[in-house]
Automatic annotation (TrEMBL):
Superkingdom field: Bacteria
InterPro entries per UniProt: Acyl_transf_3_dom, Glucan_succinyl_AcylTrfase
Protein name per its UniProtKB record: Hypothetical membrane protein
Swiss-Prot/TrEMBL keywords: Membrane, Transmembrane, Transmembrane helix
Length: 387
């Protein structure tokens, strides 16, 4: 149903507990009520967040030379999984966050929006960076350097020598909290653009463009991506994805177009992913590298938006719980993962037993952490958790 149509009478849907904004997409930016809930945006978000956990577990077995906090041994199958996920899953989170922001701004003042960003992004970033990343550095030092000091001594060492880095611990390390910092900065920078440019961008009517023209947006994305390349991601590129989502892809018409073309987008995306895995390590970097990266990423975002709208635009108790808890799972998972992996690779010989053990225990401990923290006012405040 188009956003300009009147809403049918009925009970008002509940406000969702989303990953990064806590705002259900019940209003368009122009203040017009939207009759159709965008549950697929919530579902794409928590699915991508949960994907981060096996992705990080399998980094303990990567074959592409990445020095993760703890490292077991190279396992090609696990590396293939990571290579298939890396091009698109974090960019997708920035893209859907831009869409959710447009919906949120439909029913929030600027002051409310900024206060929400502060409470759900900046404060959890600071809490996680101060409380959790030194713990990950502790186990990295024990793993790579045989560090014999205690946890408290490591905290002092971590903040005293934050810029020096060590093996497995990059300089200025904030762990997975980089996403919160990026999203906070992008949310603030995008606010005036979303406010001022929405009407002009709406006149472009991307839903009337042919599919190939929408796909060609990877070219400017490639240009922007090269302005501020990662690691962990290009800040300029993530900003561009956020704006694309927030300015254009919040409309029913464009989302329905992607849903109708979902499989036409999915097949070339799958082919590009497989080709990228096959060429890993065989193709040196060149001027075309950011454009190839942007092509795979953009085709993935379009395909998954279409598939999501078509197949996962629903809600049930499980999806609501995962949507509410995914933010905390993202914050907590990596500290648990590194600690569990440190002991698992020393006590379990086979990687085929190590990896599922690490994954299962990491997920269980992260869920327990969420359940514990949401019951205390202080930890809810620190980690941006709803009651």
């Amino acid at each position: 149903m188009d956003a300009t149509q009147s809403r049918q009478p009925g009970p008002r849907p509940p406000v969702r507990a989303g990953f990064d904004d806590g705002a259900g997409p019940t209003l368009f930016f122009h203040g017009v009520q939207n009759a159709m809930r965008k549950y697929f945006i919530d579902n794409l978000r928590w699915m991508s967040v949960l994907l981060v956990i096996p992705y990080h577990v399998f980094l303990c077995y990567n074959t592409f030379g990445y020095e993760y906090y703890v490292y077991a041994m190279p396992v090609q199958v696990f590396s293939v999984f990571d290579l298939l996920c890396a091009p698109w899953f974090m960019p997708l989170l920035f893209f859907v966050s831009g869409i959710s922001t447009t919906y949120a701004l439909g029913k929030r003042t600027n002051r409310q929006y900024l206060a929400e960003r502060l409470g759900k992004l900046l404060i959890p970033f600071l809490a996680g960076a101060i409380l959790l990343t030194p713990l990950m550095a502790y186990y990295a030092r024990k793993h790579y350097e045989g560090y014999a000091g205690g946890v408290w001594e490591n905290y002092i060492l971590f903040f005293r020598h934050w810029t020096t880095g060590s093996k497995g611990v990059p300089p200025y390390e904030v762990g997975q909290m980089w996403f919160l910092l990026y999203l906070f900065a992008i949310s603030l920078a995008a606010l005036p653009i979303l406010k001022l440019a929405r009407e002009g961008c709406g006149r472009l009517r991307l839903e009337l463009w042919p599919l190939w023209a929408i796909a060609l947006l990877f070219v400017p994305l490639g240009c922007v991506w090269d302005l501020m390349p990662g690691p962990p991601q290009s800040l300029a590129g993530c900003f561009a994805l956020f704006l694309l989502g927030g300015l254009f892809f919040h409309t029913d018409a464009l989302q329905e177009k992607l849903a109708r073309q979902a499989w036409r987008l999915s097949f070339p995306f799958a082919a590009l992913l497989l080709a990228g895995v096959a060429l890993t390590g065989r193709l040196g970097p060149g001027w075309w590298s950011p454009y190839l990266q942007a092509l795979v990423m953009w085709m993935g975002i379009l395909a998954l938006m279409g598939l999501g709208r078509r197949y996962v635009n629903f809600t049930n108790p499980v999806t609501r719980y995962l949507s509410a808890s995914s933010f905390a799972l993202y914050i907590f998972h990596q500290a648990w993962l590194v600690m569990i992996a440190f002991y698992a690779i020393r006590s379990i010989a086979s990687p085929w037993l190590q990896a599922p053990t690490i994954l299962g225990l990491c997920l269980a401990c992260s869920l327990v952490s969420y359940e514990a923290c949401r019951r205390l006012a202080l930890t809810r405040f620190l980690f941006g958790i709803k009651r």
